[in-house]
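::Encoded backbone::
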Amino acid sequence: MNKTISIVLLVAGIVLVVIGVNATHSFGSDVSRFFTGAPTDKAVWTLIGGLAALGIGLTGMFRTAK
């Protein structure tokens, strides 16, 4: 069961990272970057969430069951 959850987290993390990368290249992010020097909060939080899900999923995959 834990491996299944880890795989789901890995897939969700990959999807979120792809969405986040696409969001950083959007028109809204370009406008935000022009005025503030940073992409939109949505793009940043999507990337952070995706990387966190990837990390948790990878940790779950390589962890041994007790």
